[in-house]
Design a protein that fits this description.
This protein is 57% helix and 0% strand. The chain is mainly α. It starts with 15 loop residues before the first helix and ends in a 10-residue tail after the last helix.
Length: 94
């Protein structure tokens, strides 16, 4: 039985790229048989972008100007994306 099956955590950190590659592979194989191809590109980008926006807003306590600066976005672009994803910008640090 592998360490992961026994519940042991590997001491070697996994990169974001490795994580995505290992977890998307089975979905990609199934998507070949889907009518729209599974829309993998838009699905992955929207999931990652939404979480990134939320995390950045949490880090900046909801300060959109700071969040936009960290993300390298224009503040108006950030505001549009927040609206697209229906994310409220009122965050407070715990």
């Amino acid at each position: 039985m592998s360490d992961s099956r026994r519940g042991l955590v590997s001491s070697k950190p996994i990169s974001c790229e490795d994580f995505l590659l290992s977890n998307i592979n089975s979905y990609m194989k199934k998507s070949r048989h889907m009518e729209n191809g599974g829309a993998l590109h838009s699905m992955i980008l929207s999931i990652v972008e939404k979480q990134l926006l939320k995390m950045t807003l949490e880090e900046t306590s909801g300060n959109q100007s700071q969040a936009a600066h960290i993300l390298g976005l224009n503040r108006n672009t950030l505001r549009r994306k927040l609206g697209d994803y229906k994310i409220k910008a009122k965050y407070t640090r715990s």
